[in-house]
Design goal:
The protein has 207 residues and is an all-alpha fold. Helix content is 70%, strand content 0%.
Length: 207
């Protein structure tokens, strides 16, 4: 299936039925941010980026036990570390959910970016990175660190800059988001998944 404006309109309506108003508004914010960055860094995949943004939190408001059941029924087993990182379970559960209920949008890019949008992944694709940072820094986020990263993106990822500088700015924004997340988790004494630490290390090394 070709993802176009009509299919995106239909997808928005279907996603809206499954999310609370607050979560849906966040989802639309992620879509707008992904479109903004995508127009500069990945213009050939805007529609697919928008679909991934719309679906990234599709399992977020499913009860935790139901998310685990969905994974088990799909034959997906998670490590103890992943199971201990409860806020990220929805990103794993979304993959079989998208394959089953939104199969026409279940492209490799969409599934990979949804899977990685919470914990990140070392050397993740540009597509994945755009969805990751769009989730963190969409305009509806009010946390000071999210606002700061949003401002950084708007100031440093622009069409009047060359692509190398824009890509470097994206990597910096991603590292800023990861650093802030790790610091927040440490401060609250919560579990920090090894995937996030590996992603943090990767971006520190390439910058």
């Amino acid at each position: 299936m070709i993802i176009d404006n009509r299919s995106l309109f239909n997808l928005r309506e279907r996603v809206k039925e499954r999310l609370s108003e607050k979560r849906y508004n966040h989802t639309l914010g992620v879509e707008r941010m992904a479109e903004y960055i995508g127009n500069i860094l990945l213009p050939g995949l805007i529609a697919e980026l928008k679909a991934a943004a719309l679906l990234h939190d599709i399992a977020k408001e499913i009860p935790y036990d139901s998310q685990i059941e969905l994974l088990a029924n799909s034959g997906i087993s998670l490590s103890d570390e992943d199971l201990d990182t409860k806020p990220a379970i929805h990103s794993f559960a979304a993959v079989p959910l998208i394959k089953h209920d939104f199969s026409e949008y279940a492209t490799k890019n969409v599934l990979s970016s949804v899977l990685n949008h919470t914990l990140g992944a070392p050397a993740m694709s540009l597509f994945d990175e755009i969805i990751f940072i769009s989730d963190y820094a969409e305009e509806g986020r009010t946390y000071p660190t999210c606002v700061s990263v949003n401002n950084f993106i708007k100031e440093n990822i622009r069409k009047d800059r060359n692509q190398a500088d824009n890509l470097s700015a994206l990597h910096i924004a991603t590292l800023k988001a990861i650093d802030a997340t790790v610091e927040s988790l440490q401060r609250r004494g919560e579990v920090i998944n090894g995937r996030t630490i590996s992603t943090q290390k990767y971006f520190r090394e390439i910058l």
